[in-house]
Amino acid sequence: MIGSAPRIGIEIGASAVTIVTTGREPVSVTVEYAHPAVADEYASALRTALANAASSLEARMLRPLPEASAEIVLLPPIIDARLVTLPPLRPAEAAAVLQRDAARYFVGGSGTRAIATHVPKQLAQANEPHPVFAAAAPTAFVDAVHDAVAALGWRVHAITPAHVSWAAAAYAQLADAGEVAVVAAVGETIHVLRLEGSDVLALRRFPAGDIDDVIDALRPLPKALAVFGGVELGDVLRSHPALADCRFEMFHATSDALAFTPRDAQVEFTTPAMVASQFEHRRTLTGRFALAAAVLLVLTGAVNFWGARREVAAIEARRADLRDEVAPLLVWRDSLLRFEERLNLLEQVDRKPGRLTAALFDIAVLLPADAHLTAFRSKGDTIVISGLSPRAADAIQALRSARSFRNVTLDGAIDRELDAGTTAQERFTVEAVLTPADSTKASRSRKPAIAARRTGS
Q: For the chain, what percent of residues have pLDDT higher than 70?
């Protein structure tokens, strides 16, 4: 994963390559190499030197460093750094001007150059010409460094000039001292930087033996001094009377400052080849993230489907447990529904009864269980009812209590059917007059009260 990649620093000078790990217990390995005089030999020389240094580092750490994030610092004289006075320009505009006119500001050498620039924060909004820090390195060398590091399986985070690391380390360790300066010895040259925060406001170079010139370049003397280049240079500066009241911070080499180099320094070398490589890297990462997102989507769908199936199974199991308890209730519910349907039907019949329908209803309700009709005829308001019953008198008496007809009279005589000398059935015919519809409705208006008593309301 990118977020867990170890961070390492690589310092590349004209005669040696140093790789150092960051952390509580940093491990450093230095490998000497011969700086090629021809640009075509940069790639092979750097690949060999970095491969040897990486092998030594992994041997000391007893573990490999796959996909490490490398911050690379280039030392003089591979790079040439200076302050260039420019008119008020935005940082991007200043970088474009210096890249376009690199041969004008950096004399000597051949071939194209990669430019790293930095406009001091307090001067970025100035309305007058101001110094801009600029460093140049051969484009072929920067590309060779990038390819050599990538060949190790490491990712290049940034390639910066050494002055950025010097200034960042000095500011991190001596920010509370006020005015800070940097003295760095690289080979036979001493570099003197005056700082305002972490910005370089003055930059000079001297031969290694010109200590007095170095002291003069530091005037007015700073309150704190960061020294890079070993104990010998530090002892010489400490013993100078002019720096008796100065606070010192010693760094053995530039690699000691890598831990203080900010990840977003934005003062770095870039080349067209590096831009293309970074674009390809981002596209690869985008593809990986898209694939990871698709996999996560599929996994999420699978988990969701599994969860849904699990819930359905749990519901089915619960329904199976309740089925025996619910079955009798369902039967009761069906019985109640049928009963309600019959009640509704009776209410509809009772609500809009025809005169003959009401008469038939009363006959069906009032006739004894052992009696039944044999004929039913109507003439206007008169109805003729013929029936058969073991006791015709009881049937006729029951019909006289009907509300839908009145004046029930016997028509003719009762015919008896004998069986073994006893009366088995009696045939009878009666006539009656249908009750007017208005009086029927009035007489039936008491039914809701009867229904209320039946329901207990």
A: 88
